Amino acid sequence: MKQRRETGESKALPPSSLIDRMRQELPAMKRADRAVADALLENIDAATRSSVKAVAGRAGVSEPSVIRFARHMGCEGFSDFKIRLAQDYAIGRMYLSADYQHPAKTGSDVAGHVYEATSQALASAFAQRDPAALDRAADLIDGSRRVFCFGVGGSSANVAAEAENRLFRLDLAASATADAYKQRITAATAGKDDVFLMFSVTGRPRSLIESARSAKQCGASIIAVTTAGTPLAIEADVLIPLIAFDEEKFFYMPNRGRYGQLFILDCLATLLGGRRMKHISSKLWNARTMLADLNGESENQPVGD
């Protein structure tokens, strides 16, 4: 009964979930049904691969009792029940784990977890760095007419916005959007001197894939910071690989993948800054002067981030 005790009376899963329904109805079930539910909830992963005979043996009931239980849960039979159970478990397993039920709650524990996650993301991004890809990406951006920075969702959209923030300071015509409609329109009206810098942890958002395909047809170049082998990676002219982490264990924490994305963006921005220094130094000087007029003189006033 270990797993059920860990999950307690949590209502983490939606009411339509088969797992949650079993937990909610358990106290009112008849003896045989309760025995079957207990056997299933004890190890849901194993239950999705078990036969009627195996479940009946663990529950101490007859095989017809197991089939009746499946039908009581709204399924056509035990095979249908296992399919639905597997679907529910695939979506909800992270919410059923002990890590979800007992997350870090103290400042010390949280700081340790976040530091570890950040360090892992940066170490991974550094280990899989591709200097040649960074050079090719910098070549494309440096020679571009316009740079469009795309991302969708949480971290990738924010990193795309940060890319605009880094690049416009280098006197590059950079703009960012996370709007799927605007992404498609921008891609459809692109030209051969335009570059699209796309960020995605999964490499699977439709708007990015379709925009990349459309922009390439218009002669633009695609730089993708994403997982190798994904649909977006396949569309890219230059792939800067970034391995996606399994976020299920600590899903309640901010996505650590963004640290890897920011590492790559910082590498690109630094590389471009070095290449364009003669061109932009006087403009950055003017920018610092403007900031000094606004906020007063400060040796620590940043202009490059």
From TrEMBL:
The keyword Transcription applies. Pfam families: HTH_6 (PF01418), SIS (PF01380). GO terms for molecular function: carbohydrate derivative binding; DNA binding; DNA-binding transcription factor activity. CDD domains: SIS_RpiR. GO terms for biological process: carbohydrate derivative metabolic process. Residues 137-278 form the SIS domain. Residues 16-92 form the HTH rpiR-type domain. It comes from the Bacteria. Keywords: DNA-binding, Transcription, Transcription regulation. This is Putative transcriptional regulator, RpiR family. It comes from Aurantimonas manganoxydans (strain ATCC BAA-1229 / DSM 21871 / SI85-9A1). The lineage of its organism: Bacteria, Pseudomonadati, Pseudomonadota, Alphaproteobacteria, Hyphomicrobiales.
